[in-house]
Structures are given as C-alpha cells and as structure tokens.
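Hi L., both proteins are below.
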Amino acid sequence: MEEAHVRLLCPECGKDWQTKPGELPEAARTFHCPNCHASRPLSEFMRTEHDLNTLKQLG
C-alpha cells in the first residue's frame, strides 16, 4: 500500500516539495516555508484542492 502525501508550493518563493499529511499542522495553522521562511496559513501552500482535501482527511 502506498503512503499518502501532499504536494506543497510556496506562494512567495516557488519552492515545491511533498510530505506526509501527518507531518504537517492543521490547514488553518500558520506554516513557514523551509526555503524563504514566508509565513501563511498552511492551506495557502497546498498545490491543489486535492492536496488540501488529503491533508484535511489524513492530517
């Protein structure tokens, strides 16, 4: 069975990466880009609506 992951994209610097939903805070919590340290709600880092839904279901 393949592990679920979500894809993230920083709206400020454009860094993209993926991680497991369980390793992230709730979608409404402030998240900091590991590259440029931009601070925004985690939901704004989700690449697609599907990634956001995955985070909400499995995070």
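That was the first. Here is the second:
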Amino acid sequence: MNRCSKAIIYTENLKNNIVEIKKCLSPQTKLCIAVKADSYGHNAILTSKLAEEAGVEFLAVATVDEGIELRNAGIKCNILLLSICIPEEYESLFKYEITPLIFDLENIKNLSDAADKYFTNNAKFKVQLAVDTGMGRIGCYPDEAGEQAQVINNSNHLILSGMCTHFAVSDSLDKENIEFTNKQYEDFEKAIENVKNKGIDPGICSCSNSAAIMNNKNMHINMVRAGIITYGYYPDDITKEYLKSVNKDIELKPVLSLETKVVAIRHFKKGQSISYGRTYVCENDTDIAILPIGYADGLLRRFSPGLCVTINGKNYPVRGRICMDQCMVELGKNHNVKLWDKVLIFGPKESGALNTADDLAKIGNTISYEVLTSISKRIERVIK
C-alpha cells in the first residue's frame, strides 16, 4: 500500500450522479450501472451498495470474480456479466446468480449442458442474448437472434431474460457516426423483432450507454447501462455545454480525487537534469518537490511533460519523466510549499484540485476511463 497516496471517494457526488441519470429516464426504464474494473477505480462494493440503495435494478461486471465479490459483500440486485466466461466458471454463475451474456450455438449448448448437471429441479437460469450490431466485438448478428433465442428457451434450464447490444460511436456528433448509431439501433430493433417472431419474450432489452442515455432518449427501450457518467464525466462530444445547448441540464460531479504528499524538497541549480533520460534540464535555480507516486500507482508515464499538480491552491508542473514510484514537481524559488503538504493530482472542486481526469486524459491523449481505471490497488480508497 502506498500510504502517502490516496483516492478519496466523494459519496455525495456519486449519489448526485445517480439522481441526474435517473432524470434522463422514463419511470418504467430500468437502470444498470457498470461497476466493472472496481467501478472504474472507485471501489465496486461501495458504489454497488449506494446504487442498490438508490433503486438501481442491475449492476454490470466484466468478470465472474467481480460478480462473486459483490455477492460476498451482500449485494442482492441483478448482476449482469458483460464479458464471455469460460466453462470452468459456469458453476459460479449458477451459484452466485450472475446473469451472463451469451451467443453462438456452441456456447449456448455448453452452458445448457452445465446447467443440466447443476440443477436437479425444474429451475430456470436467466441469460441475456448479446447482439452485434456494429461494435465488432461479442454477439450474434441480428438475423441470427431468433434462432439463438429459440435454442436457449428450448433447453432444460436456460431462459432468455433479456437482449443487449453496444453502441460504438454514440458519443460522437459527427454526422456519419450519428447515422451509424441510428443504424445500430434499427438493427437491434430487428433482432428483438426476430425473437418476438419466434413467440419468445425478449425480456429486458438495452443498448444505451452513457452517451445515449443523455442524448438518445428514443433508444432507451426498457433498460439503459450507465458507465462513465456514474463517476462524473461526460463522454467525448456529449459534453455539459453541448447538452445545455439542446436544453438538457445534466449536472455531473467527479466522484474521485487522487492525492499524495510532498516527501522531500530539494534545491536544484540551473543546468541540473531531472529523472530518466535527462529530458528536463532546469532553466534556473529552483526547488523541486518529490512526490511518492508514479506509473505503478496509475500516474501514467505519458502525462509528463504537460501534467501540473495542485499544492495549496496553485498548480505546479511535473518535470522529467514520471518514474515507477515517484515523480518530481518544480516549485520555483518563491513558494509556500512545505514538507508533507497535500498534493492533488486531480479531483472534483470539493477536493481543492484544479484538474480533473479529463485534463489528464487530454495530456495523455486518452480518455477519462483509462485515467480512472489505471489507479492501482496499492492506492488506498478512502470514503468521504
């Protein structure tokens, strides 16, 4: 554990975001929140408990172990597994009541055979059919949906409880991408209709991710799946400013702040170099603060040059390459920074940080998702 560095979870901001998401939904629309990857680095158990208290009907995980962790923590609501699991994990699906996505006749047969061995009564195990409408990842094609749903419901112990697909570019306002999202939705509707034509109830159907939740209410069907917006960040082109321009006032608040401490202050002369590769040479006599946080903690190497951190309400630049466990910050000669002062890497306004995960993402040519999920397990999560 990196004892100087902490990730602070602002629970009131998380509650706020769930309320804001629900404002986008019709009363009959169910909400699924993605808590995979330890809730995007935010502590899956905490997030799941708050979501359950707020009436969220589904939680989405990426691995069976993530689902088991939630069940062992007392989570009762529906858990949806978004990735394909291996046969050795089937028994855990049944035991912990984790609903898998399934497609492909061979996989359906394998799961059905495992269910036949596990269930000794007439129990039915719920599964959801994944449909690939253009993501190019998992799922059957829309014209295969009816047949695969029929195979599922003809098995002894499996029953179709829902269908889902995933949008590839719903967070883009590019005309071509908007048309692609519309085509994905139309194809998903066709898949649902193909299932209905077999006399099968398609169950709970979802396709809307964070962007579509806020920008495509016509695509909500009867459940939506919220990811990054749960944690206070707007997806790509679907910004707060854009939403206001189309008369949608959705006030999301970042939930997590990443902080550390100044563990040393050193005096450097003009011309001295800093860190590996000597990529930064001091332009003047200056003071350098040493921070005990690096890329093994989630402060990605590519954030420097460009990254500034907040100390006592002012931003200071990181200098030289970020190391595995440490980084260096230039203070100049006229500063009020002291040993053990708190350093904020990013966070909500309440934390005192002057940067958000979006700011770091721009520096690193990535997205807020990666910034958040990169925070390692050795960073303690503290609930505020």
